[in-house]
Structure formats: structure tokens, C-alpha cells
Amino acid sequence: MMATRRIITLPPTLTGADAEAFARDGLKRGADVIEVRTDLHAPGDIDPDALARVMPLLVSERGKPLPAPWIQAAWRVDRDVERAQDMDAPPGKLLASHHAEGPLTTAEALRRWSRPIPPDALVKHVEPMDGPAHLDVLLETQAQLSQRFGSERVTVLGMGPVAIPARAVLSRRNGLEYVAMGGPWTAAPGQRLLDDVVREHRKVKDPHALRLGILGTSIPHSRSPRIHRQPFDRIDLAEDAPVEAVVDALLPHYAGFAVTSPFKMRLAKHSGSALEAINTLVRRGTRWESFNTDTEGARAVLERLGAKDVAVLGDGGSTQALRLVAAEQGLALRVVRRAEIQTPLTGDWVWTWPDRVAPPENLRFHGARVAVIAYGAPGRRVAAEIVRRGGTPLLLGAAWFVAQARRQRQLWETAT
């Protein structure tokens, strides 16, 4: 695997001492370079020399000219290969870049790079993706640019709502990796999290290892990337994303996926499963085989709950697993949909709604135990909501997660 430099971009809200604190935090967490862009910061917002003392400084010209002190302090100077008059930069500092306005064929991309580039310059090509299958085009563009300029100099990036897994695949042959520190702000759509990238680079020794990943919506707190073998990618997609096309495009590059809300039912149908919902995909040559290891999690939760009669709030993919296990164990399981809620609710319950889904306003509990199968920060938010509405939450998300993840790991080891 190539040694890549991990680049974090200074958010526009941070200036002065706050900018330097951000850089120090990034360095501590494994970043190699901090980028400052002229469309995000004015010349007086930062002390370039102070930032450069923390870690190498990349200064990028975006619309407004680069201040001379920024250039003097910089490790590299990013100028657009088409827009800059002479790509002016001190010797050894040029990062020649091109940010295409739309998706390109490889031939079109290569034409953008027909201009002579200094032999000591780095090369960065960025373009938006028009769909998951555009990864194949970007891989070919990366290969051709590497042949022209040398693989150690080239970086190719995709952008857009389905770009995260593409960036993960491209990263193995890129010299630079632009990553997000986390939180609400990101410098470009499709950036991977710094912590995930650092974890991969520390643990993966085989440059040809097939990737694993988790597919879902609003999954920044997922623990899957921290417990499964690397490389394991956090692929956060919008609810209406073409997840079926995503998994098909990634088949040559991934051994399997964990599938979470809201894609469990869609991918069950897409993979031809006899189950209504699945949470695991395993590569079998040229196709995906699907499984639902949530049944292991459901079994653990129902055993911990220890009730003979259980009601479930919500009817998504997790509920399908609860139904299967309850039928095996002879438990009475009642599924209550939002429109059917009559409060106050009593007895034993399982809350399956994701924390991003607002519960009905009229929902109230009275002496009810409510199992929470979310974990981490989302689980704590759900628990607080249950308490607010008069219930007693049982935080069983970790039990569910560990049980189903153990089975997933076994299945992924059989991938072909």
C-alpha cells in the first residue's frame, strides 16, 4: 500500500488560535497536512507560519489569489492546471490540480492534463461522480495519469453523494487523501473520516485485501469500523441513494457489507433473498449472497428482556429479525405501528425506530420496560426520549450489536 498523506481542511469558522488548535488536534489524531483555501479564509484570518510549525501547510487557490505569506510558509501550493496563467509556485511546491465541473471520460480527463507539468509537481484530478459505476472510469483515469506522471505523484478523487466508497478504493493508489475530522462540516462531499482512514493504514498490511463496509444513513457513531477487520469503510448514504447500484459497482472491490437502516429491505429484494430484510452481504464470485445476522442480536435482546409477551415499536428490518426469533421460541410478539399507538403503553417493549425518526407526539408509557437496540450516542438519545415519556429504558444495543457482528465476521471469512 502506498504511503499517503492525510489532509484535513481548516473549517471557515476557525481563525487565529482556534485554527492552530484544530491543526494540533488533527496531528494528534493522525493527519499529516493541513490545508487552507482562499475561498474559506481571508489573508489575515490565520498565521501561516504558526500553522506550518504544527504540520506541513497546503495552501489552495480557490477563486481569490493566494497571499504571499501563505505561499512562503507552504509545503505545497495548489493551483488549477487550466485556470492559472503560469502555475506559479516556488520550486518543489506546486500541486497542480483540476476540479472538473462534471463527470468526464478518461479521454476527456487526459486532455485536461495536456499542459506540461514540472517534474517536481504533484498532480490532483477531481471530478463529480454521476453514479456508482463511475468508479470504473475514475480508476482508469487514475491508471493513465499514473502512467503519464508517475504513481507517486498522482491523486484522483470523486465527489458527490456516492463518492465515499469510490474514494476508499482509489486511495490505495493515491498520494494524497483529503479527509474529514468529523462533525457537521466537511470540505467536500464524499470525504472519509480521518479516524477511519488512520485505523486502516495502521492495521492493513496486505495491499490487495478486499474491503468491508457498512451501508446506512446517519452512521457516524457506528462501531462497526472499530471492531471488524480492516479495511472497513463507513459508507453513509442518503435514504434515497441508489444503494442497489452502489453494491453492484463495488462487487469487485469488497468482500462484504453490513447493512443497516434504511436499506435492509431494499437490499433483501435486490439480492433475491427469501427474507424480508437482510443485514449482511457476502461476495460469492460475481454475485452477492445475503443473510440476516440480526436474528442473533434479536435472540440476545429477547433473552435479556426475559418476557413471554413483547410488543415492538416500528416495523423495519430489525422487526423482521425479532419476528423470526419469537416464532422459534414460542413468544407472543405484537408489532405496533405509529398510527396504532394508544397510550399509555404498559408491559415490555422493543424500540426499533432509528433515533433520527421522531416518535409520535402522543406516545407515553406507564410502568413499561423498553429495550433500546440502538447503541452509543443514538442509543442514549432514544433512552432519554423513553424516560421523558414515562418509560424505563433497557440499553441492550451493545448486546444486539455484538451478537450479530460475531456472526457477520464468520460469514465474511467465507467470501470468495
From TrEMBL:
Record GO biological process: chorismate biosynthetic process; shikimate metabolic process
Signal peptide: none
Domain of life: Bacteria
Gene Ontology molecular function, alphabetical: shikimate 3-dehydrogenase (NADP+) activity
Protein name: Shikimate dehydrogenase
Originating species: Corallococcus carmarthensis
